[in-house]
């Protein structure tokens, strides 16, 4: 793997004249990680931290180019592709997470950093940033904008922080949504599908920011539910991990994030 990765893409998702939302998305072969900036009138609120150091640095440049201070940085869950990339790029910002996510990153983060550095060298940040500020479910006014924080359980990960911006009609759902990208599946998906259906049913929101892939709409949420259902069916019909992998790739040949399947296969097919 070259030390210079392809560039990430940058997208202006919403601009209501007062608040802007920017998204940076890594290329599909590099997990298509999506991280977001909520640009308020006088400050920036950031969500998630990429995986590779290069994309973490690109995210920092995007934030710096807006010429406003980063007052809060939220990490939505404890998977390393959502926090390792911020280590070198954001050592100086207040980082928030749910209490169980803070505890998990404190416990497993150093091992994840060491392991990924051993595997990929300088593609991974040299240091770890652990969230130290607690966020709990509820509403909060930040920079004059209403934020709604929710804890969603048992989807892609055991616990995920979902951030809603009612005045903009935006939900930052992260890894509850994979947009045209293979999802990271390690167990039953019933609760995951339910969470997606609940998001889709909420008439107050029309824009959904995934943890992997480009910004999504309600049709994309329907596609995500269909993907989980189809992959669930493939799992039941597959006798081996290789058979499962090939069937998923055949069903979704244009999806990014193929390497995510390889990472979760040993969990979905233990001892096979």
The CATH topology is Metallo-beta-lactamase, Chain A
Query: In percent, how much strand structure appears in the residues?
Result: 25-35%
> What composes the largest sheet?
7 strands, mixed
Number of domains: 1
CATH architecture descriptor: 4-Layer Sandwich
Which class of secondary structure composition applies to the elements? alpha/beta
Give the structure's gist in a few sentences.
With 272 residues, this protein is α/β, with parallel strands linked by helices. It has helices at residues 53-64, 99-120, 190-201, 218-237, 241-251, 258-268; strands at 9-15, 20-25, 34-39, 44-47, 70-74, 95-97, 133-134, 138-142, 145-153, 159-165, 170-178, 207-212.
